[in-house]
């Protein structure tokens, strides 16, 4: 769920629906697929970083 105050906006609902349906992932792949393949995007490791106090 996209965080915000009160009732989610129309845009927030649309973005959430696009994310849940996989539309965002398909569009990113369609637009930047070649670049992501060159970077081995699917094989990346996610690093959880924290800022020091």
- How much beta, percentage-wise? under 5%
For the termini, the CA-CA separation is 28 Å
Unreliable parts: none
**What share of residues is helical?**
40-55%
Number of helices: 2
Give the integer mean of the pLDDT values.
86
Summing up helix and strand content along with how strands pair, one would put the structural category as: mainly alpha
For the structure shown, list the relevant keywords.
flat, mainly alpha, 53 residues
Overall description:
The chain is an all-alpha fold and 53 residues long. It has a domain at 10-39. It has two helices and no strands. The longest helix has 16 residues, at 23-38. The two termini are 28 Å apart. The mean pLDDT is 86.
Can you describe this structure in just a few lines?
The protein is mainly α. It has helices at 10-21, 23-38. The longest helix has 16 residues, at 23-38.
Q: How would the blueprint of this fold be written?
A:
Layout: H1 10-21, H2 23-38
């Amino acid at each position: 769920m996209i965080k915000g105050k009160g009732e989610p906006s129309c845009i927030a609902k649309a973005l959430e629906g696009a994310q849940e349906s996989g539309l965002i992932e398909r569009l990113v792949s369609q637009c930047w697929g070649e670049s992501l393949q060159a970077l081995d995007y699917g094989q990346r490791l996610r690093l959880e970083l924290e800022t020091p106090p």
